[in-house]
Amino acid sequence: MRSLPLPLALIARLTPVAVLACAGWALSSGPATPTDAAHRQDGRTTTNSASEPSSTSTSKTFTTAPAPCTGVPVATVKSLVPGAKTEGKEIPSTDTKLRRTCSWNALKGYDYRWLDVSFELTDSDEKATKEYEQRVADKSGGGSVPGLGDAGYSVVNLTTEDKQQTREGMVLARVSNALVIVTYSGSDFDTKKAPSTDEINKGAIKAAKGAVAALGSGASG
């Protein structure tokens, strides 16, 4: 098998700690307008104590971010990132109760795939909604994902460097006061082409559904 030079953008992708340190944890939460608790799914509820003003006191559905490397089913990891170690690699976080990320990547033959799954918790549904809306605005050009948490969004982009294409999909889901962020990308170093938009988008959504289901382990009692 002949050796192939990697484009600079993909060499950077092969250093997950550096990439995610720049891209993953720089995001913060801000205040937002209240959302109706009636829209919450799966029987999850958030209530205020009768003795405390509702404008200043909010119970959180999720208090701990789940273990991210078990947040996606093994079968999903195998199908999306062939050849990757299924246990994944957790990226260091300054506060694992609030932010956790796992990364999988592998080069099998000439096909390269990369998957990141992150869980981020905010102080309230309102803050999570504000953060969700801001990130959707920053990643315009995509569309909603019906049935994914309380709100779901996906977008796919194609980049080319040194004639090598890379296609990356991002899926963002909000579930109460939690955000799930999935990025999934791929390249073919033989043909210089990228996987189709449909393949990347469906793969990212599949991983996001598994991650949303895993959020239950961090629900408050």
Architecture overview:
The protein has helices at 8-13, 16-23, 74-80, 125-138, 197-214; strands at residues 89-91, 99-108, 111-121, 143-144, 151-161, 164-175, 178-188. It has 221 residues and is of the alpha+beta class. It has one domain (62-218): Protein Transport Mog1p, Chain A. The protein has a 7-stranded antiparallel beta sheet with strand order 1-2-3-7-6-5-4, sandwiched between helices. It starts with 7 loop residues before the first helix and ends in a 7-residue tail after the last helix. Residues 15-57 have low confidence and may be disordered.
The CATH topology: Protein Transport Mog1p, Chain A
Structural class: alpha+beta
Query: What is the average per-residue confidence, as pLDDT, rounded to a whole number?
Result: 81
| Low-pLDDT ranges | 15-57
Q: What topology, given as strand order, has the largest sheet?
A: 1-2-3-7-6-5-4
CATH class: Alpha Beta
Helicity, as a percent range: 10-25%
CATH architecture descriptor:
3-Layer(aba) Sandwich
β-strand percent reads 25-35%
Domains counted in the coordinates: how many? 1
Rg to the nearest angstrom?
18 Å
Order of helices and strands: HHHEEEHEEEEH
Number of alpha- plus pi-helical segments:
5
Major sheet characteristics:
7 strands, antiparallel
What characteristic shape results from the CA principal axes?
Answer: globular
State the separation between the terminal residues, measured CA to CA. Answer: 55 Å
Total E-strand runs: 7
